[in-house]
Sequence to fold (137 residues):
Amino acid sequence: MQQPDQWEFWDGDRWRADADSAVELIGADGGVSQTLSVFGRKGRWYAVSKQDEVLGRDLAIWTAPAPTGPFTLAARPVEIPSDAATGTLRYLPLAHPDLLPVPGTVVVSYSQNDTDFDDVVDDPRLYRPRFVRVRLP
Fold:
């Protein structure tokens, strides 16, 4: 496992040791949330996240020919909206490309919670991960 002092960062042209030189590959506005999974499969790269963070509606998949991009929004395979009226929060999607592999798909987990702590105490099932299998574009 590489130590942080051995990490390299993509500057849009080449890999560099300076973290400040890193460029944004997918923006936050209309793009990824704070949680992002990137994995490669059969010569293609996939980035999985919730589009537009916690208040967004869609799990989204971006694709690229390389881990350095360019990434293009390719699919919104499932809605995982938060709901301000009920207090339901859906967030933190993570792709699990090695979990129960099926060609052309990926398992994605996401967290669900409630803004009312008393509701969660009354029903702990409100606060647990959910899993979906989605088709890769």
About this structure: The longest strand covers residues 105-114.
